[in-house]
Amino acid sequence: MTHSSASLPLTEELARRAESGSLQLPVLPAVAAEVLSCIDGEDCDARSLAELIQKDPSLAANLLRVANSARFAPNEPIVSLTQAIGRLGLATLREIALTVAVKGAVFNVPGHEAYVAKLWRRAHASGRLAQEVARTRRSNVEAAFLCGLLHDIGAPVILQGLVDLARVNRATLDAAAIEDAVEALHSTIGARLVQDWKLPDWVHEVTLNHHDPQSASSHQDLVHTVALSDALAHWLLEDGGEGDAPGLEHLPPLDLYQDDFDRLCEKGVEITQEAAV
């Protein structure tokens, strides 16, 4: 079937379901939800985080796999969560736990592995770059990482929704239809998802407004942080870092300067050359 005769009606139906609230959204596993809540709380110490993670054997196993990856390069293998906390620190362990939990909950659409992998690489790079922006500004590094990681979370949700609709209607999806739907709907559907997951309002503001930070009713610095990080991640991953780096318009609102931007671009090259978790 052609893009106009099959995929477009599916996109319109997806938009209607999103607008009415009838679109089925992924459920965040209970353990992952508790891990995410640690990002906004002060009562999550190393022991309580380890106890949380141990409730989910799959999450624990994946976390240890990541802790032993090239990025963290432990001198000796890390074989327990307690050891991981001691070696990597609570903040890093929390970052890994968030990453593994979100990837498993949403970035998994059978039959579209290559496209989802591309979405994941960009999401993870955006989170890491947002960390660097926050570190430069001496603002909340963990909040920046979470927002960078989740800002395009509507994209895999849209893909899964289109796949489900295509199966029910015995229709064929094409790449152009998927891209059009993602571009048009990912911010609103992503914002609805993070609300459904009861994440902090600053995550909602970033997810909804990262393409237009001036529209954010609050937390504009965080929205600009992620907008800049997303632009650089796209430039480095999709364009190979060719041409002028984008995102200069976000420097004044963030009180950043050209030297800061140049260092961020250099760090971005390192980040995007690493394999995503």
From TrEMBL:
Domain HDOD: 25-213
Alphabetized InterPro entries for the sequence: HDIG_dom, HDOD, RNase_Y/CdgJ
Superkingdom, natural source: Bacteria
Stated name of the protein: HDOD domain protein
